[in-house]
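so i finally got all the pieces together for this one. its two components total, 523 residues if u count the protein bits. some of the lines might not be protein, just check the labels. i wanna see the whole assembly predicted at once instead of chain by chain like last time, that was a mess tbh
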Amino acid sequence: MLPHIDDACHSVPGSAATGNVIPLLHEVRHALQALLEQGAETVIDLRAIPLGPGEEERIAETLGRGEVQVSMSALGPSELIETRYPGVWMSLHRNQEGEVIGRYIEICLVPSLVRSQEADIRYGLQELDSRLQE
Amino acid sequence: MTKDQTIGEALRARGVSRRGFLKFCAATASLMALPPAMVPKIAAALEKARRPSVIWLSFQECTGCTESLTRSHSPTIEDLIFNSISLDYHHTLQAASGTAAEEDRKTAMKENYGKYLLVVDGSIPVGNPGFSTIAGVSNMDMLLETAAGAAAIIAVGTCAAFGGIPYADPNPTKARSVTAFLKEYGNRLPNTFTVDETGQTDPVDVTNKPVINVSGCPPIPVVISGVLAHFLTFGKLPELDSLGRPMAFYGKSIHDRCYRRPFYDKGLFANSFDDEGAKKGWCLYKLGCKGPTTYNACATTKWNEGTSFPIQSGHPCLGCSEPDFWDGGGFYKALSTPTGDITRTAVYAIGAGAAAGVALGALNRSKRAHMRKTHSKVGIDDLEKGDKS
């Protein structure tokens, strides 16, 4: 059973909380509706929003994990997971030292970084050609 | 990496995939406080950008600003940005020394005249040219000489931006910030001026050179990188506030973005460092927090891999990115605390026939204005008084 969003996100009285968790989840809901109705994709940068200790974890807990998890290794590891709400992805990017350089909530069909990139495909084609000519 | 390569070409030559490059651009957008929708535009601009020459001069400083950048915990971004510029002179970091190092600076100036970025950390002593010299050249002369061909100047750290600690009362070296120095001395010819070395044909008035202040003691590393990234991406300096600081990072006060702000609004304060309020993480205003008057990105960007910032660690903000923070009347005094003797304040109030609160405010404002003017020294007595209040 899913936790009730209010239960998961309301701050404990007296604890350090910004009150930004619920508004942010509403922003996600609006973006998801826009994705469904207009195909509009949205990216929310979690580092741009003031969040108190534990609030980011509460957002992650509320959104949960869904069916798809993608691990990527490009200039350091990245993990992109579809949350229990299809179309809502949480992405965490690290540098080569393993340190966090970005946390985003992406509301889209597939995060753009997961798709193969045209420049890489072109380079890969050249590599494959040379390999076959060896 | 050659100087003719674009940044995109250079990254591909280093084996960075397009996907990796886009990830880098997303992190760059985040650190420039730009919306994620800007990532494709940043990618397109950065791919075509050519490496600008950067000359970094260190004057009256503690090297904390350089340490902040080079010891930062997100080296990939800083590393990539630094690989995207041509850092032609930085006397702390470069291997060359003495005459060879100075030749590097002069060559970079000549080859990139009018186009290079000049980064300055530290304040400039004008009391005596001998107070601070590099290779026998006074800081004053070196700044005048190097500023002449710069496209813009980035004053890194509070010392360069506002004078900082060397400027604190009694300012024994007569330290000046970069902006103040250029206004006062920018139309003078440096003693070291030589036409053939710099490519100049006429003395240059540098009074109005664009200066961007990246204040903080030290500044947040990604803020330094963010300004460089902005210049790389858009080829111009970002929008600035009234103190010449980039709005993207200094547009909001620490207080506005502090996660403890709801406690301030509810009137819940820590009254000492170990009381119940402190343990519950309540607002540190009464312990002297300067968050309401300090503009910086600490509350969202944070430090040490985004782990925390002073307020999150239980210490009030010192206001280190603001002018005269060292002489502001006491780190542990609340902004509303009288800076003078309370007895005198009461007499002042009665004499004026005004409410005590109005009198306190008037005396505070007057005292603070006087302190700003004279840079009154903060003594150990002030700190102790602040602790007890």
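The first helix of chain B runs from residue 7 to 13.
The CA atoms of residues 77 and 143 of chain B lie 29 Å apart.
anyway lmk what u think
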